[in-house]
Amino acid sequence: MNPTPDARTSRPSGWRGRVAFHALGCKANQEEMECLTSRLVESGFEVVPFGEVADWTFVNTCTVTSAADSDSRQWVRRAAKAKEAGGTLVVTGCMAQRDPAALAGIDGVDWVVGNAEKPNLHGWVTGAQSLPATMAFEGRDSCTRVLVGDEPTLRGFAEYGHAIDGRRTRATLKVQDGCDEHCTFCVIPKVRGRSRSRPLAECREQARVLVESGYHEIALTGINTALWGRDFAAPSDLSELLTGLLEVEGLERIRLNSLEPQYVTDEWLDLLASSSRFCRHLHLPLQSGSDRVLKRMNRRYRTEDYRRVVEEAVRRMPDLAVGADVMIGFPGETEDEFGEMVSYLSSLPLAYLHVFTYSPRPDTSSLQMGEPIDTETRKSRSRELRRLSDQFRRRHAERSLDSLQTVIPEGATEDGWQGLTGNYLRVSFPWTETESPGTQVREVNIVGFDERGRVRGRLVS
Ligand code: SF4
What we know:
Among the domains are: about 15-145, Rossmann fold (3-Layer(aba) Sandwich); about 405-460, CATH 2.40.50. It starts with 16 loop residues before the first strand and ends with a strand. It is α/β, with parallel strands linked by helices and about 450 residues long. The chain is built from 13 helices and 19 strands. The chain has helices at about 25-40, 65-80, 95-100, 100-105, 120-125, 190, 200-210, 240-245, 265-275, 290-295, 305-315, 335-345, 375-400; strands spanning about 15-25, 45, 55-60, 90-95, 110-115, 145, 170-175, 175, 195, 215-220, 255, 280-285, 320-330, 350-355, 405-415, 415-420, 425-430, 440-450, 455-460. It binds iron/sulfur cluster. The site of iron/sulfur cluster has 9 residues, from helix 6.
């Protein structure tokens, strides 16, 4: 709802102030911040670019690697520098949960808020909810107020609402939070708690609101989305969510984000293959192509299980893009184990890799697992996997030649427009008309690609 303008100030009546925000890390973190901002806009706040003078500035931090910690600190310092006297700088998210003292110690930070407390921010900022006593302690404005529980002990899914920012053609919908796995390198379960799922009715209602707001595609996000429904009093699973979303009228494309491979069943794959409204795109985190390393990581599948899932998925949906996260430099990763990973990956019909470097995280058991891998070795292994990923991308483009794919136009390029196909190709296509091609789902014929993997298409509808 847009407030009506006030003629004296040229500000809308009901204007409550300016907000700026930045979220680091995963899509779930981004989505939470966008939901908070959307709700603040609905309550009369105006969004300004990060770094500009704002009454409230929010930084949603990430702690998945030591580089994410360092980026989070940098963004907080940037916000602190830009903060005008009287503005309030709020730092929240996974690093705030893990190490509040490190962020509270940065000059200019006003509030440090944990993950369990984050959903209350809208109420605290608008005044609809009073600040807890610990936040309002002594009424001193110069102190950083820290509200971070020891554990993110939320029970049930914390509602953030929905994110409508008008900048994107693809909405994200968070359907799950937390994780019950205990991968030995991962700090996330400690900062986000156990798996909690958004109830089906709420997912459908939010999807309906997003479609009504003009989005044609919704990407489902979560920390471990494959766990959706398992925490309900009457346990359910992802197929119920997917079937329920297919009933949302006007929702033309549904994209799944990362799914832990050990949970992917043939029934899920049959369901995905049964409707062209599911994007032909699956991201299945692998982490290592060596069973010995997978065991040390405490991943709950082995390479043959992963192969079976990928091959079954591609057998059902031949133009599917399957992507994998892979981690290099896990403690003790030998030359042989890395070699096994390269030949294993080369034998799979993958479309791309996301290559990560192991990062030692506090309170994770991998810290006690063998020697760290030296920097040069990590760099050269990473380069090798990135080269492999480039080959996979070209192969995926080549396999898609002459096929018809759905695309949602996203923006103009030098010689046309571009968008993301259902099967995860960023395709550009000629467009000479002065009017934009719109943001509805169109069909594009894939006609070529170049050495750098840039894909060309021709709109056919
Ligand atoms: S599945 Fe493993 S890597 Fe992923 S969030 Fe859970 S513990 Fe972390």
